[in-house]
Structures are given as C-alpha cells and as structure tokens.
Amino acid sequence: MRRVSKIAAASIATAALAFTATACGESSTGGSGSGDGGGKLKIGMAYDVGGRGDNSFNDSAARGLDKAKKELGAETKELTAKTGETPADREQRLASLAEGGFNPVVAVGFAYKDALDKVAKKHPKVTFGLVDSVAEAKNINNIVFTEEQGSYLAGVAAANKSKDGKIGFIGGVDIPLIKKFAAGFQQGVKETKPDATVQIQYLSSGSDLSGFGSPDKGKEAAKGMLDKGTDVIFAAAGGSGAGAIEAVAGKKGTWAIGVDSDQALDPSLSKYKESILTSVVKNVDAGVFELAKSIKDGKPKTGTSTYSLAENGVTLTTTGDHLKDVQTKLDEAKKKIVDGTIKVKSTL
C-alpha cells in the first residue's frame, strides 16, 4: 500500500524538465461532470516545458494519464508550458482546466507550485495533483518521491562497474531536488567503494532553469569528465541528459546512467542503449493514476503521498541486462535501505 504522509517542507525541483519548448497543446475532450458525482471522469494535465513526448519526466506522467483513459474511461485535456512564460500563464492554464470541469487537475513539476497555491484556493471543489513539490491547500495531493534512495542504488551500480573509481554526476540545476539525486548517488558510490571519487557538476544555477533543456551543455560537461578518466556518468538533468548520454556513447568502455524514464528505450536515444547502464526512474505514472482513481471512487486523495523505494516508487531499470553481474549487491543494498539499516542522505 502506498504510504501517505503530511510534510511541511517542499521538494522544490525536478530532475526532469524537458528537451525543448513547445506551444500549448491539448487533446480532444468531451462529456461533463468531474468524476466524483456520477459524471464522466475528466482529467486535466498541465505539463511542464516539453510536454508529452519528452521521453523523460512529462512522459512518465503521461503514462499515468493513458492508464486512466484505458482503465477508468477518463476523458482528458493536456496543456503544455512554454519556455519563458510568466507565473500568470501557469495560473491561467490551471484555472482553465478547473473551470472546464476537469477533476483532478494535475500539475507536473515544481514550477507550478506558486500558481497552484493560488488557483486551488479559488476552486475548492476541484482536487489538484502537484508532482515534485508540496503545496498547502487542503484540496491538493502532493506527489513526491525518495529520489535519493534510487540514486543510492545507482551509486552502488556505478561503483561496481567503474574500472578506476572515477565517477561523475551532472545535475541540471543546483536546486534542492537535484541535490537529493547527487547526495544519494555519492553516498552509494562511497559506501560501496570508499576510494572512489565523484565529480559533481551543475549546468545552471538558481532561477536559471536552462540546465534542464540544453543537451549541448550536458554533452560538453560529460566530455570534460570523460577527458579526465571518468568512466560512469549519472545525469539528472532532464533533456540535457541526452547530450551526456551521447558523449558517453562516443567513448568505448564508459557507462551512462539515465533518469526519470527508461532512457535506453527512448526512441531518440536507443542507438546508445548499449552504453546506458540503467536509469533511475520515478514512477510518476503511479501517482497520477492513483489520484485519478481516488476521484473516480469518490474518495479524493489529498495531503502528501510519498512514493519510496520500498513501494517501487523509485526503481532502477534493467534494460539490456547490464546490471546482471551486480544485481545481488543491488538487492542487498535495497533491502538495507528498506529496513532502515542504510539511511540515505538527501543533502550533500
């Protein structure tokens, strides 16, 4: 069973913004009602930049939406953020979905938090979902993950696969959620191979979110690490990670670790799949589907739902069977995290 807990502090970021900007888009909609009063279940999805098709964070949310359409008979509308838009644009996007009879309305990504704080209060009869951050309104279900736990396992894998113990981490932006990935990864590496080194580099900082959507920056950072002898690189950098994976694939004997979706299955990255050791996946689709089902059942989920390693809220992918030789060690580490023997840090 999923564990639901109330927390006060926000996880104010996401490791998975998108590749490139797109204009607002939407799918066909119809019917009426909001899903909890006998009417048609209508789900509104507000993606962050890149939207459906980013092969990363937004697509994980989209899978949950697709499952709700198939299994719950939901009608949907999908809107996508644009690069450089104002907070008012995000507010308008959420408000238009709420006013259109959609319930729940799901906001994908930390950047919607401030807008959702305002919009949720104006629409108390609508249940909102917020992925990767925490808002306080009573009609919001905050969907968050223990990214540091999945990243710890990636660190164990990296330490075991690295020849010389030179390992790299590329973060999109130096904000708290990305640092959760970095902290867990570094801890996993060092507790597996104490003599190993982890070089940590961020592509942008503060309010500059370009580090999440600049494959060229990811590629340049990865090349710099590879030139110094690094042979395993974990990129938690949204669309920028594609550039890092490309760089790693260009150097024989090195490994890339992806994030958010199984990037070895990404059509645009599949040609590099033999260089992708694994991906640290956050199962956003599960959170989206469970929220939708709660509305369908007339028992809306609210408060903070934390999806942890114990519940497979975060996992490592096994595409390509590159982890076979270290799977026993990964299973041992997972057991220790779940039973509390290993306490994974969420800050560096």
UniProtKB/TrEMBL annotation:
<keyword id="KW-0449">Lipoprotein</keyword>
<keyword id="KW-0732">Signal</keyword>
<protein>
    <submittedName>
        <fullName>Lipoprotein</fullName>
    </submittedName>
</protein>
<dbReference type="InterPro" id="IPR003760">
    <property type="entry name" value="PnrA-like"/>
</dbReference>
<comment type="similarity">
    <text>Belongs to the BMP lipoprotein family.</text>
</comment>
<dbReference type="GO" id="GO:0005886">
    <property type="term" value="C:plasma membrane"/>
</dbReference>
<feature type="signal peptide">
    <location>
        <begin position="1"/>
        <end position="23"/>
    </location>
</feature>
<dbReference type="Pfam" id="PF02608">
    <property type="entry name" value="Bmp"/>
</dbReference>
<dbReference type="InterPro" id="IPR028082">
    <property type="entry name" value="Peripla_BP_I"/>
</dbReference>
<keyword id="KW-0472">Membrane</keyword>
<dbReference type="InterPro" id="IPR050957">
    <property type="entry name" value="BMP_lipoprotein"/>
</dbReference>
<feature type="domain" description="ABC transporter substrate-binding protein PnrA-like">
    <location>
        <begin position="45"/>
        <end position="346"/>
    </location>
</feature>
<keyword id="KW-1003">Cell membrane</keyword>
